[in-house]
Design brief:
Low-confidence stretches: 1-5, 7-21
Largest sheet: 6 strands, mixed
Order of helices and strands: HHEEHHEEEE
Organism: Hymenobacter lutimineralis
InterPro entries: DUF4440 (IPR027843), NTF2-like_dom_sf (IPR032710)
Strand content: 35-45%
Distance between the termini: 58 Å
Number of domains: 1
Keywords: Signal
Protein name: Nuclear transport factor 2 family protein
CATH class: Alpha Beta
Length: about 140
């Protein structure tokens, strides 16, 4: 009986170490998605910004105008709402809380702010649902207000 406990302790320690490193890696990967999106937005590249989203008809965006389903309609809405780099302004995210839910799912709560000197600043909060699909974290649902 004593021998089996000795074998069990290293396995438990290894399992515990793996469990704690995965969320950290997931958080870093998810924060990188948001950082890449911010950089694309701030250079006026809406299509680049959209690379952080799931390219699927099942993507859902919830905003002040209601529900939008699909990657292309979401891109079209962004382009309509922000027709130029000046209208887009400079994006910052803050108060980010990344919460891994499983090895392949997470959500992020945070605040967004657009600094737009000519058109007036905009800001609000968001909840993103992300999934790891084909080895890459993507936003599958976005509720921004």
């Amino acid at each position: 009986m004593r021998t089996s406990y000795r074998a069990l302790v290293p396995m438990l320690l290894l399992t515990s170490a793996c469990a704690t490193t995965r969320p950290t890696a997931a958080r870093q990967d998810i924060l990188q998605v948001l950082s890449t999106q911010t950089a694309a937005w701030n250079r006026g590249d809406v299509a680049g910004f959209m690379q952080g989203y799931w390219q699927s008809d099942s993507l859902v965006f919830i905003g002040k105008s209601g529900l939008t389903y699909g990657w292309q309609p979401t891109l079209d809405n962004y382009r309509r709402s922000y027709p130029s780099a000046e209208a887009m302004g400079q994006l910052t995210f803050s108060n980010l809380r990344v919460q891994p839910l499983s090895p392949a799912a997470a959500h992020v709560l945070g605040r967004w702010h657009l600094a737009r000197p000519a058109a007036g600043d905009l800001s609000g909060h968001f909840l993103l649902v992300l999934r790891k699909l084909n080895g890459r974290w993507v936003i599958v649902a976005d509720h921004s207000s």
